[in-house]
Amino acid sequence: MAKKNSSKIGIILLVVGIGLLLWGINLYGAFGNKLARTFSGSSSNETMIFLIAGAVCTILGVMMLYKK
Question: What is the extent of the structural domain holding 52?
Answer without folding.
Answer: 2-66
